[in-house]
């Protein structure tokens, strides 16, 4: 799976969480731009883990601040 396919799948998953209709780019920040609270982050991470059949560790989650970082992390985890 390449980065573009991964990004497209994550973009589809983020839609229900993107309440303000923010344009998503690699630089989009989850807490600042999308205003995700901790519960929303947990729900969103669970959706990604289910979609890609991966586990994103708490340490990795703490380091992911932008959409682009998330896409890269999922690509890396999928190998």
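^ Assign residues to that structure.
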């Amino acid at each position: 799976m390449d980065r573009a396919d991964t990004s497209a799948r994550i973009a589809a998953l983020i839609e229900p969480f993107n309440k303000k209709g923010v344009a998503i780019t690699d630089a989009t920040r989850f807490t600042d731009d999308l205003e995700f609270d901790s519960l929303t982050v947990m729900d969103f991470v669970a959706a990604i883990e289910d979609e890609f059949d991966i586990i994103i560790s708490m340490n990795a989650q703490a380091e992911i601040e932008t959409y682009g970082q998330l896409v890269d992390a999922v690509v890396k985890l999928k190998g």
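Helices lie at 3-14, 38-52, 58-63, 67-78.
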